Amino acid sequence: MRISKGALLVVIAFTAPLIVELRTVLAWVNVELTVLESAVLGIGLIGVLLVWALWPQSQNNATESAETE
Amino acid sequence: MNIHTYEKLWLVAAMVLIVGFIATITYGSVALGITMVGDQQETVEPTELNDERFSDPRVAQVGENEYEAYVTAQMFSFQPDPIEVPEDSEVTFYVTSRDVIHSFSLVGTNVNTMVIPGEVAEMTVEFDEPEEYGVVCNEYCGPNHHNMEGMVHVVPEEEFDLTELDAEAPDEVETGDDIDVTATVENRLLDPLETTVALEIGNETFSEDVTIDGGETYETTFAIDSTQLGEGDHDWAVTVGDHTDSSTVTVVDELEDDADGETNENTDEDADGDENGTEDETGTDATENDASGGDDE
Amino acid sequence: MTNTYIESFPAEAKVVRAAFYSSFLALAIGGLFGIVQTLHRTGYYRFMDSADYYTVLTAHGVLLAITFTIFFLVGVFTWAVTTSLDRPVEDIRFTWVWYGLMVVGTVLTAIPIFAGFTDSEMSASVLFTFYAPLQGHPLFYFGLVLFVVGTWLAGADWFRSWWAWKQEHPDERIPLPTFMVLTTTLMWYIATLGVAAAILLFLLPWSLGLVESVNPLLTRTLFWFFGHPVVYFWLMPAYMMWYIMLPKISGGKLFSDPLARVVFVLFLILSVPTGIHHQYLDPGIAEGFKFIAMTNTMFLLLPSLLTAFTVVASMEHGARQRGGTGYLGWLKALPWRDPVFAGMALAGLMFAAAGFSGMINAGMNINYLVHNTFWVVGHFHLTVGTAVALTFMAVTYWFLPQVTGKELWSRSVALGQVVLWFVGMTFMSNAMHRGGLLGIPRRTAEPQYEGFEFEAAVGSVGELDAQIALGGALLTLSLVLFFANVIGTALNSRSDDLPANEYADTLSGPSDAPLVLDNLKLWTAIAIVLVIFAYSFPLLSIIERGGLFGPELTELPVSIGPGLEYLSTTTVSTVTTAGETAIAIIAGVGS
C-alpha cells in the first residue's frame, strides 16, 4: 500500500466531483461525453488509482504494511 | 500581534479579490448603466388594481420600438398570457401581485424579479431575435405554485400588432330585418394600421379596407339582410389580421314581443330563470346574459 | 479512569447529550423528507399529492435549518464553555429550562406543520421563510418565538459562566472556545431582533386576527435581517470545530489564536448588515441600499478566506508533526482513516466550492440569473447541508464517546458515512447548480411545465434529475449509517479507554492577540452601529412607502386539504360568486 486505506477511500471519493465536472469542462471545448462514457472514464480512473495504491509492494513491505494511521 | 508572512500575503490577496468584485459590479451599474429592480415605482393597492396599467394588463407601445408591459401575477397565473412583443424592441415590464409574493422570471435569462403585493417591479429588457420564453413563478405562492407559468412571445416585426377587436350583433332577429354586425377595432400601436375588416356570415363574406391611425379606434357596421340567410342559426365571424371575434345569430320567423331584440332577450331570460330556479346548469348559462341585462336597467 | 467530558461534567454531559439527541431526531425526520422531495421533484416516485410537497418542504426546512443545527450547536457551545473555562454551568436547572423551552417551541411549531398532512383546519405550509401574506397557524409563530427565547436563555447561561469565571480570573484572556461562543451569541442576539419583531409585532397578531394586514415587504425584510445571520449561527460552530478540533485531530496545533479571534469578531460585526442581499430582486428597496448590503457581504468573504488559510495551515502543521514531508506529500500523513478528521476535511473542501457559488449569489448583477433558481438550493446544500451538517456529523463521532462514556460503535462505518455524504452531495449539488443555470426554479413540486421546456447546454434535464436522485439516495444511505452508529454507540456499554476531553493548543497563543480583541462591548457597539447604518433607512423607506401594516391583503391561510380546494378553485369561485350576485340582483329586480 502506498497510502492508507482511509486515504485511498477519500482519494476515490475525490474522483466523484472531478468526473462529474469533467463532462461540463469538456463541453466547453466541444467534446461531448455521454453519461456512459463518463461512467466508464470514472471507473477507469478509480481502477488506475487502485492499481497505483496497491501495486508496488516490493520495497520495505514490513514497515509499509503498518498503515500510517 | 504577529501574523505569519504567508498569512499576510493571503490577507492582501483576499482583500484584492473582494475589492475587485465590488469594483466590477460598481463599473457595471455606473459605467454600463445596468439598472436593478429598485424603488422607482409608487406603491399600489393589491386588492384593487384599478389604475390604467393594471386594470387591463397588456402591452402598450410608448415609442418607436419601445413598449411597456403591464403584468399582474396572481395565484396561479400571469396576465396577460402570453405576453407578445416584437423583435428588436425595448420592453419595460411593470409587474405587481394581486395576492401573495410571486416572481416573474424568464427562464434561462437574467430577466427575473420578485413580485410583491403593494409594490411594482420595473425592469427594462431588450429583445433581439424572435423567440419564445417560458415564464415561471419561482417563489412559493401556494399549493398550486408548480402550475403557475406563462409565456413571452417575441415575434417577427411583421407578425406583431396591438389590435383590439370587439364585434357585436344581436342574438335574434326577425326575418326581414337587418342584422347589424358592429366591429370596433382599436389600433394601440403608434403607427397607422392598414388592414381589412372582414365579416363572414353564412356563406358570404363582406369586407372593408381601412387605415386606422395610431391610438385610434375605428367602428364599422355591416348590415346584412336576414331574409337572404333564412331562418335558423347562423355563425358569424369578424376578422382583422390574426384577430377574430365570433358568435351566432338566430333568425326567427316572428319575435315573441314587439319590443326590440335586447329588451326582449332580457325578459325572456328572466322568465327562464324563474322556471328553472333550482336547476344549476341552466342558471349558470343564463348568468352572463342576465348580468348584462341587469346592467342595462 | 479517563478524562472524558462526562467524567468531568456529568450533569452538563446529560444536557449536551439531550441536545444532541434532539438534534438527531430532527435530522432523521428532515432527512426522510429530503429523499421524499428528491424523488417527487425529479418525478421518479410521487406517492403524495403535489400540494403536500410544500408541507414536506416546510418540515424539511424548519427541522433541518433550525432544529437540527441549533440543537446541535447549543450542545457544542455548552461543551465549549464548560470545557474551556473548566467550570460547570452556574445552575444546571437553568440549563434544563432553556433546553426545555427549545423543545416545547419545536413541538409547538411542528404541530401545525404536521397538521398540514391531515384534513384539519390547522396548517403552516408556509415554508421556512414564512413570507406574508401566506399565513401559518398562530401556533407556528408562537412555537418559533419560544424556541428563539430558549436560545436567548442559553446565551445568557454561557455569559453567566463567563462572568463568574472572570471574577475569579480577572487578568486572564478569554479562552478561545468561550470567546467564539460569546461573539457568536452576541451576533445571534442582534440577528434575532429582526425575526422577533417580524413575528411579535406583525405576524403573530395578524394570524390571531388582532391586526388586519401586514406589509409584506416589511416582514420579508425583517425576516432576512435574521435570515442571513442565522446562516452564520449554523456556520460558526462548524468553524469553531475547524479551529479547535481539526488541528488537534490532525496531530498539531492551531496556527494562530489571534487571527481566530479576528475572524469571529468580523463575523460579529458583518453578519447582520448583509441580509438585504437576499432581496436584490425586491421592488420597493432602493438600489443604493442593495449596494451597501452587497459591499458588506463581499467583506464577509474575508473571515471565511482567513479561515481557509488557518485551517489548511493547521492541518499541514499537524501532518508535518506526524512525519509528513514535501510540498503536497504531507497530505498523505493526515489521519484520513479517522472519520472525525476525514469528515471535517471533506466538509471544509465542499465549503470552498460553496464559497464560489456564494460569490456568484452575492454579485448584485449575476444574482439575477440565479435568484430563486435551483442553483440556490445547490448552494445551501453545500453550506448548511455539508459544511455545517457534515462537520456536525463528523464531530459527533468524537463527541458521542465524550457525552456518553461509551466507545463509538464503528469507526469504519463512520468513515464510510462521511465519504458517502461527500459523494452524494457532489452529485446532488452539482446537478442543482446546473439546473439553476437553466432556470429551473427552487421550491416547486413539479418543475415540469406545459408551455416550455428547460434546455440543457450539456446533457439533458433528465440526466440532471437522475444525478439528483442518485445523490439523494446516497445521502439517505449515509444518514442511515449515521443513525446506526449513534444508536449502536448508545447501546454500547461504558468504556474506560476513551480519549480525554481536550481541544487544540495554539502555535501563536492568546498573548499575541491585542487586548482590544477581547473587548466584546466595543465590537457589539460597532456591530449595532453597522446594523443601524445598513437597515434604518431601508426599513424607514419601506414603512413610508407601504405603511407599517401594509395595504389591504387577501388573507391566505395555506392549508392543505379543504383549503387546497379553496385555493385551486379560487379564480373559478370568484367568477361563480360574481355570477351568483348577478343572479341575486336579477331576482331582486324580477320580484
TrEMBL record, chain A:
The chain crosses the membrane at residues 7-29, 35-55. Keywords: Membrane, Transmembrane, Transmembrane helix. This is CbaC protein. It comes from Natrialba chahannaoensis JCM 10990.
UniProtKB/TrEMBL annotation, chain B:
Gene3D superfamilies: Cupredoxins - blue copper proteins (2.60.40.420). InterPro entries: Ba3_CcO_II_C, CcO_II-like_C, Copper_CuA, Cupredoxin, NosZ/Cyto_c_oxidase_sub2. One of its GO terms (cellular component) is membrane. GO terms for molecular function: copper ion binding; cytochrome-c oxidase activity. Keywords: Copper, Membrane, Metal-binding, Transmembrane, Transmembrane helix. Residues 64-166 form the Cytochrome oxidase subunit II copper A binding domain. The chain crosses the membrane at residues 9-34. Residues 240-297 are annotated as: Disordered. Residues 253-283 have a biased composition (Acidic residues). It is found in: Cell envelope. It comes from the Archaea. It holds the Pfam family COX2. This is Cytochrome c oxidase subunit II. It comes from Natrialba chahannaoensis JCM 10990. The lineage of its organism: Archaea, Methanobacteriati, Methanobacteriota, Stenosarchaea group, Halobacteria.
Automatic annotation (TrEMBL), chain C:
It comes from the Archaea. Keywords: Electron transport, Heme, Iron, Membrane, Metal-binding, Respiratory chain, Transmembrane, Transmembrane helix, Transport. Residues 20-510 form the Cytochrome oxidase subunit I profile domain. The chain crosses the membrane at residues 18-39, 59-82, 94-118, 138-159, 179-203, 223-246, 258-276, 288-312, 340-360, 380-400, 412-432, 468-491, 522-543. One of its GO terms (molecular function) is cytochrome-c oxidase activity. Its main location: membrane. One of its GO terms (biological process) is aerobic respiration. It holds the Pfam family COX1. It is found in: Membrane. PROSITE patterns: COX1, COX1_CUB. It is a multi-pass membrane protein. GO terms for cellular component: membrane. Belongs to the heme-copper respiratory oxidase family. This is Cytochrome c oxidase subunit I. It comes from Natrialba chahannaoensis JCM 10990.
